[in-house]
Amino acid sequence: MKLTDLRVAVLGLGLMGSFHTELLTSRIRGVQVTVVNDFVQAKAEEVAARIGARVVADPIEAIKDPEVDAVLLATPGNTHAEQVNACLDAGKPVLCEKPLTTDVDSAYAIVAKEAALGKQLIQVGFMRRFDAEYAALRELIVDGGLGNPLMVHCTHRNPAVPPHFNSEFMIRDSVVHEVDVARFLLGEEIASVQVIKGVATSTAPEGTNDPMLVIFEMTSGRIVTDEIYVRTGVAYEVRTEVVGESGSALIGLDQNLQVKSTDGRWGGRITPGFVERFGQAYAVELQRWVDAAGQGTIDGPGAWDGYAAVAVCEAGVQALTVDGKVEVQLQTRPEAAR
């Protein structure tokens, strides 16, 4: 470890936390994971022994540890409010996996608290912003390459999910990515959400609407559609198309090797999971966060973006039981959060 390395605590060592820890210790420059924490003590001890870190059993104490400069949160969403607030109290940059918190009031309170500090310390883990295709699509829109963007069409499909992935969970854990994509690409807020529920797949639990069509209306009146289907049994497929006055652009087509054979067949392999599709985006996200955190700040979506996503998802959950649009309720954005 170099004296100039950023010392990071990773809280939560499940799927995402373990993935982030692996990236931080194998691919990211200028960083050392010095402290780990997990609800399962044996898991924390196993990871700590492998990477040369210490286990701190209490997550708040891990955040306050003097050998920690910045924090990566991959803990359950219902713990984020307390833990993000602890990072603000300690003055330490934090990369918080979504959601920022699980309710709009606590999320906005964090926005206001950070704004009062006068510096940005909170980055939210919307990794698609760091994907080369999404970044190029955003640049194309900003540069006017499609003319005025009129509509955005998103597709989000998973091969399988755990049984607890009900309709509400689909909104909060999956659709939330398209929430941020819409705001990122179009540079405006989402004004309302509507959910259209059709015939559910036979593999969905009773009462779960899978697939669904989620429709966002932006403040400008632009329309964004999102097909969410998380039990396809096929592969991990994420695509986004922007339709403008002067053309359209589509990203997320399968970039793997395609083969044409002499018997007239052709085909390839669709990405089986999120790591294969967005692994490089996660690496870019972490490297940029580490570089920024070393300067005491962030480089990516911030607390307001996290709050806006929570507010839109809350409207989306309400829309599951309401015919028609549900308006998104956003409080005033503090000047320091702009």
TrEMBL record:
Keywords: NAD, Oxidoreductase. Gene3D superfamilies: Dihydrodipicolinate Reductase, domain 2, NAD(P)-binding Rossmann-like Domain. Pfam families: GFO_IDH_MocA, GFO_IDH_MocA_C. GO terms for molecular function: inositol 2-dehydrogenase (NAD+) activity; nucleotide binding. It catalyses: myo-inositol + NAD(+) = scyllo-inosose + NADH + H(+). Transmembrane segments: none annotated. SUPFAM superfamilies: Glyceraldehyde-3-phosphate dehydrogenase-like, C-terminal domain, NAD(P)-binding Rossmann-fold domains. Homotetramer. Belongs to the Gfo/Idh/MocA family. This is Inositol 2-dehydrogenase. It comes from Microlunatus phosphovorus (strain ATCC 700054 / DSM 10555 / JCM 9379 / NBRC 101784 / NCIMB 13414 / VKM Ac-1990 / NM-1).
